[in-house]
Design a protein that fits this description.
alpha/beta, 2 domains, 4-stranded mixed beta sheet, 5 helices, 35% helix, protein biosynthesis, Translation initiation factor IF-3, Translation_initiation_fac_3_C, T_IF-3_N_sf
């Protein structure tokens, strides 16, 4: 009959993902740090685990790159919960910039242009990039210079809040320009 170690019941791949705590620490000597941050010295993992169990806490490997490796006595469940909580908060606060699109025709009316301009300003205020597209149909493609003028006018109107990431470029029957919000200094 073989002696079952606590982590032998997990498959090898899953075992590799488990944290190095308590019996999983396999070094001849480790440097031990107490719960309040004070160093307890260099000792064997078995002695350190005994000290951790006396305090009803876990022995956690902090750095395996150091010589000798550094371990800390802490409540691992609480530590893991706090770490996940901080990561969740960080994800909530971060904003991924999306690319929003405003579409024009080269012969757009003044009021319609102003509506698209306000939309682009709102997208910029939200921190998103704006893809401005001038669409042409049929023989309208002969007036590509009017489409470029329209995009340059849009950029001129947004110049104080936007920077040109990609200048106007013809793609098939469309002319496309990408603007991004200016970085606040």
């Amino acid at each position: 009959m073989t002696l079952e170690r606590p982590f032998d019941r997990f498959p090898r791949k899953q075992r590799a993902e488990l944290p190095n705590i308590n019996e999983r620490i396999r070094f001849p000597k480790i440097r031990l740090i107490d719960t309040d941050g004070g160093q307890l010295g260099i000792m064997s993992p078995r002695e350190a685990l005994r000290l951790a169990e006396e305090k009803d806490l876990d022995l956690v490997l902090v750095s395996d790159k150091a010589d000798p490796p550094v371990c800390r006595i802490m409540d691992y469940g609480k530590f893991k919960f706090e770490k996940e909580k901080k990561e969740r908060e960080a994800r909530k606060k971060q904003h991924t910039a999306e690319v929003k699109e405003v579409k024009f025709r080269y012969n757009i009316g003044e009021h319609d242009y102003n509506v698209r301009l306000r939309s682009a300003q709102q997208f910029m205020a939200d921190g998103d990039k704006v893809k401005a597209t001038v669409m042409f149909r049929g023989r309208e493609a002969q007036h590509a210079e009017l489409g470029e003028e329209l995009l340059h006018r849009l950029f001129k109107d947004l110049e104080d809040i936007a920077e040109m990431q990609q200048p106007p470029r013809k793609e098939g029957r469309n002319i496309i320009m990408i603007l991004s919000p200016k970085k606040l200094a």
